[in-house]
Design goal:
single chain; 391 residues; alpha/beta; seven-stranded mixed beta sheet; three-stranded antiparallel beta sheet; 12 strands; globular; binds pyridoxal-5'-phosphate
Amino acid sequence: MTRLASGVARLGTETAFSVLARAKEMERAGRDVIHLEIGEPDFDTPAHITEAGVAALRAGETHYCPAAGIAELREAVAAELSRSRDVAIGPERVLVANGAKPFLFFTILATCEPGDEVVYPDPGFPIYESAIRWAGATPVPLPLREELGFSFAPDELRALLTDRTRLVILNSPQNPTGGVSPAPDLAAAAEAILDTDAWILSDEVYARMLYDDGAFASIASVPRMLERTVLLDGFSKTYAMTGWRCGYAAVPEPLVEPLTRFFVNSTSCVPPFVQLAGVAALTGPQDAVTAMVAEFAERRDLVVDGLNALPGVSCLSPRGAFYVFPNVEDVPMSAETLADRLLEEAGVAVLAGTAFGANGAGHLRLSYANSQANLARALERMAEFLSAVPA
Ligand code: PLP
């Protein structure tokens, strides 16, 4: 009898992709659906970046290249991370992969095994828990608190650390809440983690998406943390390059070779023409990023105001990323039912907060990476749906 490996059952998924598939099916059947489920910028990749990729393709950059990344990109990343995080990172510590995602998976596989504990944000990006379970390690959810603007309480983090903690995953600005961790909280977290042997995986893929003049803070900037931190960023969100599949990280020296070996064993390398587009992104003009962030800020205000006007809904104004995480506890149905019914009955695709962990209960996640016109239409449809729900 043919059969699957038992471990397959431990592997999770991203609900956003299944809701997207369902929404697409509805569209094929003639329904109009507004997509607020998927987390990707709706902008085109800035033209000068695409041109650099096309030029590299034409120049024959279509072969295997070093698994760790091409030298030009590792240098550009080292310069960018050193500048933006105010630390000294050399190119030999920089690795390039097919998106930020492989770093999540391979860092966990390279550091964790059965018996180890991994602290990770809940609600949080679902791949963290999936990869932790796949590695056979024990997931230890770190609650994000709505009253703290969806950051964690440093004391709560300290209380979760044990001598079995192998890895602490942090993510700010945060998916799914848009929460941003303040620098003093990251300093307090660093102090607690320094008492352990744990590595840190700091997922900073939304680092450039900050509003209200918020300053970006990274745990890697705290003295002595860089040597235990995988400092993760990428091109997908900042430069609207989700389909190019390119991410990068500065990693502690002992992880450089093992992670590179994971790449050799799996994907070999990121296509060199993609990496050369990445060089253009990091070293070229940044005005497209500034314009995107300004547009996201306007959309955030539109969505937060609109949600707060709905019966039973209250929504914090997040300071980062492009998500809102409204509290729907006062709507008389579960957030899962609400998400299902909004899709089926109102044609608005959103996710239930529990798609991101048990602490997401009573919430929805909406991505506002959609036009202001579509966001306004979605809010109208939600208002109409909720006004018909008996209180
Ligand atoms: N980390 C977080 C917090 C994300 O939200 C995402 C994508 O949604 C990723 C990582 C993966 O990004 P990439 O496209 O670079 O693999």
